[in-house]
């Protein structure tokens, strides 16, 4: 009789632990699904941001290339010829603001007289 009672208690506790474990497992599965949804949303946002940055970089690069070409033409017009070796980065300065012919001459061809 005692043995039967003891076995019944073990079975009841064991069944309770299985039910508790199943509930816990279900809760973990729901959390996993929520986390996967959040991760998918974050990836979608990240890829959208990367796409926007790529569009901006292409536009920015195109503007820089256009400015650089115009600047080379202006330097050639002011200096007569283009020679490397200036200490001043004219593209950085002149593509962000308007440079005067005097500034270009002083920077790119200081030996040339006006």
UniProtKB/TrEMBL annotation:
Signal peptide: 1-15
GO terms for cellular component: extracellular region
Pfam families in UniProt: Ins_beta
Record has Hydrolase as a keyword: no
Coiled-coil annotated residue ranges, if any: 18-45
Keywords (A to Z) from UniProt: Coiled coil, Disulfide bond, Secreted, Signal
Subcellular localization: Secreted
Keyword Protease: no
InterPro entries: Insulin-like_regulatory, Nem_insulin-like_b-type
Source superkingdom: Eukaryota
Recorded GO MF terms: hormone activity
Family the UniProt entry places it in: Belongs to the insulin family.
Listed name of the protein: Uncharacterized protein
């Amino acid at each position: 009789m005692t043995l039967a009672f003891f076995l019944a208690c073990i079975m009841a506790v064991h069944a309770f632990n299985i039910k508790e474990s199943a509930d816990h497992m279900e809760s973990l599965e729901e959390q996993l699904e929520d986390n996967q949804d959040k991760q998918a949303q974050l990836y979608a946002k990240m890829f959208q941001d990367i796409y926007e940055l790529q569009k901006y970089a292409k536009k920015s690069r195109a503007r820089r290339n256009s400015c650089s070409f115009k600047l080379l033409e202006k330097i050639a017009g002011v200096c007569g010829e283009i020679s490397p070796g200036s200490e001043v980065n004219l593209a950085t300065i002149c593509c962000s603001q308007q440079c005067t012919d005097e500034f270009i001459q002083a920077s790119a061809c200081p030996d040339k007289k006006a």
